[in-house]
Amino acid sequence: MTGFYHVCFTVPDLDAAMADLTTAAGVRWREPANGRIGDWDYRIVFTTGDAPYIELIEAPSGGPWGDTATARFHHLGFWSSDVTAGAARLSGAGFPEAFSGCPYGRPFVYHRVDSIGAHVELVDFARQPDFLAAWNPDGAPMPAINE
């Protein structure tokens, strides 16, 4: 799958979810980070090692991640050579935009894919060096969907 690099779950308790996945599957984690986009604060963490990563996000309900009161699969993340063109492609294919970080200076977009009950996230490929620096400093470059 060209450009695929993570699966994301929204969780009401980041520490509990990390502990449970460590116990259940031996998953190891980077240190969680705090973030803010628009009016929404959140905590985020990724697994150690190379792609595909598991991402966990803890955030209050009502923001970019919708109802976060219970744990759930939220999205599959893909690098994109052009988020704007990718968003237009997904919208044109019948997958409506659910949230765009672009107006907040964050080049990513979520599109709803009802058949999987979740979203596809496109992230601008230009952000990959920053992602690797934060979450996998020794990681190799990953491919992107060529829009």
Task: Describe the structure in your own words.
This protein has 147 residues and is α+β, with helices and mostly antiparallel strands. It has one domain: 2,3-Dihydroxybiphenyl 1,2-Dioxygenase, domain 1 (Roll), CATH 3.10.180. 20% of the residues lie in helices and 35% in strands. It has three helices and eight strands; from the N terminus they run βαββββαβββα. It has helices at 14-25, 83-92, 128-135, and strands spanning 4-10, 33-37, 40-46, 53-58, 72-80, 97-100, 108-113, 118-124. It has an eight-stranded mixed beta sheet. A hairpin with a 4-residue loop joins strand 7 and strand 8 (118-124). The longest helix has 12 residues, at 14-25. It is globular. The two termini are 14 Å apart.
SSE topology string: EHEEEEHEEEH
Kindly report the name of the CATH homologous superfamily.
2,3-Dihydroxybiphenyl 1,2-Dioxygenase, domain 1
For the largest beta-sheet, the strand count, sense and barrel status come to: 8 strands, mixed
CATH structural class: Alpha Beta
User: Which structural category fits the helices and strands?
Assistant: alpha+beta
Known CATH architecture: Roll
Q: How many independent structural domains?
A: 1
